[in-house]
Amino acid sequence: MNAAAAANASAVTTGQVWAWLAEVADPEIPVISVVDLGIVRDVAVADDGACTVTITPTYSGCPAMQVIADAVTDALRERGVAKVELRTQLSPAWTTDWMSEEGKAKLKGYGIAPPAQQVIDISGLRGGAAGSAGLAAGVRRGAIAAPRVVCPHCGSSHTQNTSQFGSTPCKALYKCLDCREPFDYFKCH
User: Fold this and answer.
1) Rg of the chain on CA atoms, in Å
2) What backbone phi and psi angles, to 5 degrees, belong to 32?
3) Domain span at residue 123?
4) Alpha-carbon distances of 164 from 16, 44, 114, 186, rounded to whole Å
5) How far is CA 6 from CA 74, 81, 138, in A?
6) Are the C-beta atoms of 159 and 176 separated by less than 8 Å?
7) For each of the chain's 189 residues, which pLDDT tens digit applies?
């Protein structure tokens, strides 16, 4: 590394690294960055300019993680960061709650319904011997209601799941019963 690149690398801040990573597109959904998606969990820059980036896959076995890791490393090296270390953190598991609101808006603009909040029905069984499964006192059991998925094309909530498997494993296929357009839905995790 030449003297100018070494000086640049030692002057790198965590804020710059976050900004650079916000430009790294997800390979499966190029309209959203790996930062907006919530894959990048942490960034640390050492005094010598070495950078450690912690990433969490959207789900175990995500086929895009190696491509994402390479894109993160390349983005930082292109900006003069000579030493890049990637760490994969599996716990806590990634959740769609980590997606930015801007990222969810980008998904919608791209024609993919963003994750919808699910309502949990906790009116199920309660406690001890009274519970048919012998549940411990205070433990609640219920079902998770189907999400209310809004069509990204027309805004209607009159939609129907046609397949739990969409164009990628993290998406499901829906259709709008009003405008009749099919669309992907980014599943809640």
Assistant:
1) 21
2) -120, 140
3) 111-189
4) 38, 38, 15, 10
5) 17, 8, 59
6) yes
7) 444 444 554 589 999 999 999 999 999 999 999 999 999 999 999 999 999 999 999 887 788 899 999 999 999 999 999 999 999 999 999 999 999 999 999 999 999 999 986 544 444 444 444 444 444 445 455 556 678 899 999 999 999 999 998 888 889 999 999 999 999 999 887
Amino acid at 148: R
Total domains in the fold of the chain: 2
What is d(CA 13, CA 19) in angstroms, rounded to the nearest whole number? 10
How would you classify the pairing of strands 112-113 and 84-88? unpaired
Residue 103 in domain: no
The answer to whether the beta carbons of residues 39 and 28 sit under 8 Å apart is: no
Strand ranges inside the chain, DSSP E = 40-45, 51-55, 84-88, 112-113, 159-163, 171-176, 182-186
Instruction: Establish how many alpha carbons lie within 13 A of residue 150's alpha carbon, considering only the half-sphere containing its beta carbon.
Output: 14
Say what the pLDDT of residue 143 is. Answer: 57
Residue 179 lies in a domain: yes
Query: Which CATH number do you get for residue 79?
Result: 3.30.300.130
pTM for this prediction: 0.76
Contacts of 43 (CB under 8 A, 6+ apart): 14, 17, 18, 21, 51, 52, 53, 54
Residues 69 and 122 in one domain: no
